[in-house]
Amino acid sequence: MPSTPPPTTGPQAGATPVGGRKPTRRRAGWLLPLLLLLAAVVIGSLLLSQCGDDGDSDTSGSSAGAGSSASTSPESGSTSRSGLSTASPNDGGASGQPGTITAGDTSVLPLTAGADPAPALAQVSGQPAQGSAVQVLSVPADEGFWVGTSDTERIWVQLTGSGESPYQVQEGDTVDFQGTVVAHSPGFAQQVGLEVAEGAAQLDAQGHHLEVDKTSVTLAD
Questions:
Q1: Domains plus CATH for the chain?
Q2: What HEC string does the chain produce?
């Protein structure tokens, strides 16, 4: 008779040992996508936060810019960064402003540049005038010279008083003075020795000049 194999006492292949656990496979395939998703959320939150800060900065900058923008003076129509109004050359102009000649509250130089300056200057005829740091454009006569900003915006200064001037005016100087706006008749330019090339026709057309005592003319600071 064939012999019967003895019964096995050890664990059979594929069987689970008593008291043991089935070995399980690590299921980590879902972990990497989750981490990537969390990283994307964090980065997105940081970007949104940064954009919000930039928006606040832009808004505050715009507000600050609006607060420091130039203001307009309703009286003179001029502007300044500090919000204080400054005189415009075409307006009256405050007395003592550099480069101006004023008669009362009126700036004289703009009146000389119009197409018909005589009626414009007649508005201030006979009034005291003050020049502040006005440029001397030319000195074509012994006792007279042009002051102003250009060959079209200028007025003649005729010196008065006896003796020699304490200060010899020269072209290019900036001078201070006090005088009077005086009307003159045609031919005045010839009387003071002004030639055609030196502005004689312009002086006669303006019909006015400034009479200034010699001792009043000083170099501007």
A1: 100-219 (2.40.50)
A2: CCCCCCCCCCCCCCCCCCCCCCCCCCCCCCHHHHHHHHHHHHHHHHHHHHHHHHHHHHHHHHHHHHHCCCEECCCCCCEECCCCCCCCCCCCCCCCCCCEEEECCEECHHHHHCCCHHHHHHCCCCCEEEEEEEEEEEEEECCEEEEECCCCCEEEEEEECCCCCCCCCCCCCEEEEEEEEEECCCCHHHHCCCCHHHCHHHHHHHCEEEEEEHHHCEECC
Beta bridge partners, 219, equal 175
Which residues, 6+ apart, have CB-to-CB distance to 125 below 8 Å?
181, 182, 183, 208
Q: Over the stretch 147-196, which tens digit does the pLDDT of each residue have?
A: 999 999 999 999 999 877 778 899 999 999 999 999 999 999 999 999 99
The answer to whether 130 and 101 have CB atoms below 8 angstroms apart is: yes
**In contact, 142 and 220? CB cutoff 8 Å:** no
Residue with tokens 């008669």, as numbered in its chain: 103
Say what the pTM is: 0.58
**Model confidence at 87, in pLDDT bands (50, 70, 90)?**
very low
Of 219, 205, 203, the C-alpha closest to 146 is 203
User: How far apart (Å, rounded) are the C-alpha atoms in residues 202 and 66?
Assistant: 47
What length is written for the chain?
221
| Identity of the residue numbered 76 | S
Over residues 13-41, the mean pLDDT reads 60
